[in-house]
């Protein structure tokens, strides 16, 4: 195999591996979000809602996050949770963004939470998005492109060998 073909095969394999990794990660997120759609919708009461702040280092800007605690009952058993979503509450440099969430979930308000029927102690206020599943085509392009590079490199090498055999 020529050095150029070998290089193209390596680049193609790298693209394929990267594409497969991203397809797997995105599929996992989509699958988890799809599974959440079967969770029970339960009324919950907001117990605490506030803006938290943190500063990782003196050179780093202060970040703000949304904290929420809520109580709910599932099949006659009382639970409390602090989970906004599976990934938690995002931190941001914008205090206003966190304050909007606090305003959306004021203390004493009754909101819907989503309870995992397999583990009723696990609940969230916001379901994950299924958007990663609708974007699987993008990393799949890398897989297809990588396979195309591999096939093209090997085909080119085989055609070169055939032409050398027929000339020689």
Tell me what you see in this structure.
This protein is an alpha+beta fold. The protein has two domains: 3-33 and 134-167; 39-126, no CATH class. The chain has four helices and six strands. Strands 1, 2, 3, 4, 5 and 6 form a six-stranded antiparallel beta sheet that branches. α1 packs antiparallel against α4 (137-167).
How much is the average pLDDT? 91
Uncertain segments:
none
Question: How is the main sheet built?
Answer: 6 strands, antiparallel
Number of strands: 6
**Total domain count:** 2
The number of distinct helices, counting runs of at least 4 residues, comes to 4
Strand content: 25-35%
Rg over alpha carbons: 26 Å
Q: What is the percent of helical residues? A: 40-55%
What structural class do you assign from the helix and strand content?
alpha+beta
Q: What global shape is seen?
A: elongated
What is the H/E order? Answer: HEEEEHEEHH
End-to-end separation: 18 Å
């Amino acid at each position: 195999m020529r050095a150029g073909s070998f290089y193209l095969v390596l680049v193609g394999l790298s693209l394929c591996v990267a594409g497969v990794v991203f397809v797997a990660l995105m599929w996992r997120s989509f699958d988890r979000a799809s599974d959440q759609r079967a969770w029970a919708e339960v009324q919950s009461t907001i117990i605490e809602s506030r803006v938290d702040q943190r500063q990782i280092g003196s050179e780093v800007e202060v970040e703000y996050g949304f904290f929420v605690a809520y109580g709910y009952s599932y099949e006659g058993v009382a639970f409390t949770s602090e989970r906004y979503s599976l990934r938690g509450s995002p931190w941001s440099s914008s205090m206003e963004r966190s304050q909007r969430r606090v305003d959306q979930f004021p203390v004493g308000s009754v909101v819907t939470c989503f309870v995992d029927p397999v583990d009723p102690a696990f609940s969230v206020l916001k379901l994950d998005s299924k958007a990663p599943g609708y974007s699987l085509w993008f990393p799949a392009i890398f897989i297809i492109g990588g396979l195309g590079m591999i096939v093209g490199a090997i085909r080119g090498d085989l055609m070169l060998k055939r032409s050398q055999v027929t000339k020689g």
